[in-house]
Amino acid sequence: MKPISLVVLSSVALLSKICHACIDKATYYAIDSDIEKIASSITSQNELVHFYGGIVRLAAHDFMDHDRNSGTPYGSDGCIEWNHEVNKGLQTIWCNSCPLTKLYKKTYSYISKADFWVISANAVIRQLSKNQSFDLANTFLWGRKDAASCQGAGDRIPTGTGCREVEDTLLDAMGLQWRDAVALLGAHTIGKGHEAFSGHDGYWMPTVADSLVFDKKYYEELILRTWRSRNIGTKEEDFVASTEETHEHPQMMLKADVCLLYNTDRKYPCCSKTNRFLHGVNECDWEEVLSNKKCPSYAKNDSRMEAVRAVLEYLGGISPNDNQGPFYKAYATAWFKATTNGHDNLKSIRRTCW
Ligand code: HEM
Ligand SMILES: *[C@@H]1O[C@H](CO)[C@@H](O)[C@H](O)[C@H]1NC(C)=O
Ligand SMILES: *[C@@H]1O[C@H](CO)[C@@H](O)[C@H](O)[C@H]1NC(C)=O
């Protein structure tokens, strides 16, 4: 039989979890390792990319509906308009039979979904970061409350049409700086787009393995590769890497990605580098995108030069280098703002809850 003091102590711990839904370090890292366990049971690399990427996208769709100028500001509140077009695919991550949902219901339903999604995304980012060194636990705050409904939230989520949309959502509505927006979009270094969900088919990275590493490669790909327009004239207008034919999986960028360097709002279709040749053929000469249609750079006095400067900063110096510092630092700042937006009285995780 347990000594009575131990029984009392453990009931106090249990009660404090139930009553105050407190999150301590042990709980935070238990979620992290539970997610690692689920990931290790996934044998297909493609599925793993989507499992990891989908979790971070889920947390992002929860916070990107924040509008500080609205009477219903929303934000990270565990509420998603599941049937909205823009959220297609999230239900392969969060559903009754989904491993992540089952984990939550079985073990962690005493904390809010909003907190759980942020912790889960933090876990993904830590697990996929270089040397698993990028740990967002130190800046994590808990205490978000879930909303039962969030009508109109889906209409606030950007679809990828360009930088006007990034400005509307991330800067004007969410109140972030360009350097924050550029850092957050760096999350596209993991995961993939799906024909059946957004209609944007492909990976941001050149290989599937690269799509399982959370690092600054997004910016390197953006600046080093020739990007030419794809799906021209459709709702899914975007960009594909000039080297696409040699890859089993297409490598793509959204207009919202390419516009961090080039003014795709001003000219589209266009090609990012018009002076490159592969086997004697200009890398831009493909379908209706001709080599003379260079994607325009921003004017020196354009406010989006802040985005360009951020991209250059997160490259971490002259390529190639493994300096993840500037990106990780900026990402931590931006992620903190995005995930705490619209909340007061959030608390940092303590060593123990009791
Ligand atoms: C202007 C803002 C954004 C736009 C337009 C955008 C657009 C998209 C699109 C179209 C997809 C493909 C969905 C699919 O077909 O499966 C996607 C996936 C993804 N997004 Fe974003 N996104 C934005 C911001 C963010 C932010 C802020 C984050 C996180 C910090 C993020 C993380 C991801 C991840 C990880 C995936 C991969 C999902 C998977 O593998 O299933 N995105 N995004
Ligand atoms: C990862 O570890 C290697 C070898 O110790 C080191 O050179 C590199 O700078 C580390 N990278 C990060 C981002 O911690
Ligand atoms: C930037 O400068 C150009 C002339 O070089 C001018 O036409 C334009 O209006 C300026 N834009 C802004 C936002 O100041």
From TrEMBL:
Pfam families associated with the record: peroxidase
Gene Ontology terms for molecular function: metal ion binding; peroxidase activity
Superkingdom: Eukaryota
Keywords: Heme, Iron, Metal-binding, Oxidoreductase, Peroxidase, Signal
Alphabetical list of InterPro entries matching this protein: Ccp1-like (IPR044831), Haem_peroxidase (IPR002016), Haem_peroxidase_sf (IPR010255), Peroxidases_heam-ligand_BS (IPR019793)
Domain Plant heme peroxidase family profile: from-to ranges: 54-354
Extent of the signal sequence: 1-21
Similarity field: Belongs to the peroxidase family.
PANTHER family: L-ASCORBATE PEROXIDASE 3, THYLAKOID LUMENAL 29 KDA PROTEIN, CHLOROPLASTIC-RELATED
Entry protein name: Plant heme peroxidase family profile domain-containing protein
